[in-house]
Amino acid sequence: MAVSELCKGKQLEEEGKLEEAIAFYRQELVLNSNNSWAYHRMGEVLTKLGHFHEAVTAYRHAIELKPDFSWSYHHLGDALAQQQQWEESATAFSEAIELNPEHYGSYVGLGKSLAKMGQLDEAIATYLSAKALNPDADWINFSLAEVVEQKKQSDLVLAIANRQREIELDPDNLQVYYNLLEIQPNNCHVWLQLADILANQCRLEEAIVVYRQVLQLLDPGNQTNSNLNIKGGQKSGIAHLT
What we know:
mainly alpha; Serine Threonine Protein Phosphatase 5, Tetratricopeptide repeat; 12 helices; 73% helix; rod-shaped
């Protein structure tokens, strides 16, 4: 594509005549089907119009013709991400990074795709690479913070599930309840389970303390529970407190 023709296409884009720009690039490709730049520019315009599937096709043609142009891979990754094709998007961004390891935007795109696939450790590492290249970009710091928080929540959910499984496997082991309460200190159900087991083991003073903890969690403003007693070591539950 001659410079004058390229300028004409870009001028149409700048004027907001996106459909005309696409028609122009299509006509150029009829004249020269090996024009990688026309495919690339058409992909960008199609993306602006929200035609992501067509944009992906255009970028793939551009890459076939010019496989060393990092921006085609980068924009391909963006278009694939818009279609929630996270694995393919991650592959495209990885290719862009291999060709242009200094472009922090490709790291951000890769990080987002990895996070969407649940690969949070890898996503965090990728965002850190982007941050190293552009440490003053608040939007990168924000994206990194979001994934770090997502990782914390994911780890917490996994830890809770593991502790609950320990209780299922060894329900008479007091320590497994304490282990879960370390990460869920306001879980009334677990506190009540612990109190019941203590009562059943005739460890009544300890059980009373735990039952009081349950009542305090259920009704933080209630100050009338300071003289509670347990009737019957084998009974369980708050209903048996007086």
